[in-house]
Amino acid sequence: MFQILPYINEAFILLSALSMAIGWWQIRRGRVAIHKRLMLLGTVLAALFFIGYALKTILVGDTTFGGPAQLRLPYQVFLQIHTILATAAAVMGVVTLRFAFKQAFAKHKKIGPWTVIAWFITTASGLAVFLLLYVIYPPGPTTNMLRNWLGY
Fold first, then answer.
1. What would the CATH number be for the domain defined by 5-149?
2. Does 142 score more than 90 pLDDT?
3. Mean pLDDT score across all residues of the chain
4. What SS3 string covers 114-141?
5. According to the model, what pLDDT value does residue 96 have?
6. Under a CB-based contact definition with an 8 Å cutoff, are residues 118 and 85 in contact?
7. Contact at 8 Å (CB) between 78 and 129?
8. Core-most of 19, 28, 101, 102, by most CB within 10 Å?
9. pLDDT over 70 at 145, yes or no
10. pLDDT in tens, 18-77
11. What burial letters (b/e) apply to 10-35, b meaning 16+ CB within 10 Å?
12. Where are the alpha helices (DSSP H) in the chain?
């Protein structure tokens, strides 16, 4: 079960980005109700990703990079950048949602495009991490999250 969890999580995050892309396209056409539903769906899918990722990390651990040794450092740097971007995008998402729920649409409209762009970049970098960890190279051993984050 734990071997397929990364694939399920990646599907959640990719579907989240797709939902948000279509939602952004809908608001640009003035379709507010559809935009709202798609953005909420994207948020739920992102939350499901995070829950799945957190559960795997807590219960099993994180998978280390199993690729060539000369790519380990560049991979770790890329992973750190992805982690920082993901955190920033998540915070921006909470702020954007808060503005929408408070009906502060002028503020929502200003930050929304930046938030969704940050989410797309995060999704793309996350897909690269997933491909490097599970598809392009055989997965390394699964280990404690902190040790993996530091590259050990």
1. 1.20.120.80
2. no
3. 93
4. HHHHHHHHHHHHHHHHHHHHHHHCCCCC
5. 98
6. yes
7. yes
8. 19
9. no
10. 999 999 999 999 999 999 999 999 999 999 999 999 988 888 888 889 999 999 999 999
11. bebbbbbbebbbebbebbeeeeeeeb
12. 5-28, 32-59, 72-101, 105-130, 145-149
Please say whether the beta carbons of 114 and 92 come within 8 A. yes
Written as six digits, the tokens of 31 are: 């379709």
**Whose structure tokens read 């396209």?**
25
Sign of CA dihedral 113, 118, 124, 127: negative
Structure tokens at 110: 């200003």
pTM of the model: 0.89
Kindly report the number of other CB atoms within 10 A of residue 53's CB atom.
19
Q: 20: closest CA among 48, 52, 46, 51?
A: 46
CA separation for the pair 53, 131 (Å, rounded) = 16
Q: Where are the domains of the chain?
A: 5-149
- The identity of residue 107, as a single letter, is K
User: Tokens at residue 144, please?
Assistant: 């404690």
